[in-house]
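Format notes (please read before filing issues)

Several people have asked whether sequences and structure tokens are stored in separate files. They are not. Every record keeps both together, in the order shown below: the sequence lines, then the token lines. Line labels are part of the format and must not be stripped during preprocessing.
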Amino acid sequence: MGILWSIIIGILAGAIAGWLMKGSGFGIIINLIVGLVGSVLGGWIYGLLGFSTSSILGTLLMSVIGAVVLLWIVSFISKRMK
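Then the structure lines:
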């Protein structure tokens, strides 16, 4: 059941981050990838700052923050490459 929740939270985090950064999502597969990678990145950022999560909403917030940071980094790099 933990993997199922991770996938659901990853999809939601990717969709929310896509909406925050561009105004729309990227499709379910890309949202899943962005959300899952964002969750790992968010966990790393939370660890650096000394924060931890113990609820689904806290994990979702951490994943969204990580996904937004990931999208910002990708956007920054793509602008520099042009």
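For reference, the curators noted about this record: DSSP finds three helices and no strands in the chain. The mean pLDDT is 83.
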